[in-house]
Amino acid sequence: MSASHAGDPAAFAADVLDEGPAEPEHEPGVASRRPTKTCAGGALIRDSTGRVLFVVPTYKAVLDIPGGMAEDDESPKAAAVREVREELGLTVALGPLLVVDWTPRNGVWRDCHQFVFDGGVVDGAVACDPELSGVVYLSLDGAAPRIYPSLHRRLTLAVAALESGTTRYAEFGREV
User: Is residue 117 a contact partner of residue 40, using CB atoms and an 8 Å limit?
Assistant: First the structure.
C-alpha cells in the first residue's frame, strides 16, 4: 500500500476503483515482452551516536541495511516497513525518501530500483529473522570493507540527503 494510503485501505481501494477497469492488451503479448524490473525498499536506521544499523545476512557474505525486495503490488516503502518488522521486530513509521538508486544486473539478480527511507534513530536493535545472524552498528567508513561499494556510495548519499532535506537520485550509487 502506498505511503499516502498507509493506514487507510479504504482510500487505497477507492483510488484503485477510480482508475477504471483494467487496461486491455491491444496487441496480444505486448505486456509479456516488456522488461521486468525489481525494486527494493530499505531503511537508514542510526543509533544515538550516528552509527548506521547493518544487518548480517546468513545468505550472503556482505552486510546490508534493513529492508528487502518489494512483493507483487507492494510499494517500496511498504516493503521496507514489512522487512524492518520481520528482520528486527520493530514497527517503524519511516520518514522521507532519501535516495532512489538504480543498480544494474548482477549475476542472477535483475537490475533494480533501490529506495532508501529515513528509518530514524533506534538504539539496541536485535535480529529477529532466521535469515540474519545479527546486527551491527558501524560508521560508513567502518562498514566500507564489509559492504558493496555501491551500497557505501548509496548510503553516503542517504546521509547527505538526511542532512540537506533533499532526496537524491543515483545510478549504481553515483548521483546523477
Answer: no
CA–chain centroid gap for 138, Å, is 19
- In order of start, what are the domains of the chain with their CATH numbers? 36-175 (3.90.79.10)
Residue 132 burial (CB count, 10 A): 19
In order along the chain (176 residues), what is the average pLDDT of each group of 10 residues? 61 84 80 86 98 97 97 95 98 97 91 98 97 98 98 98 98 97
Rounded Cα distance, 54 and 148, in Å: 12
Q: Give the separation between CA 95 and CA 6, rounded to whole angstroms.
A: 13
Cβ–Cβ < 8 Å for 144, 62? no
pTM: 0.88
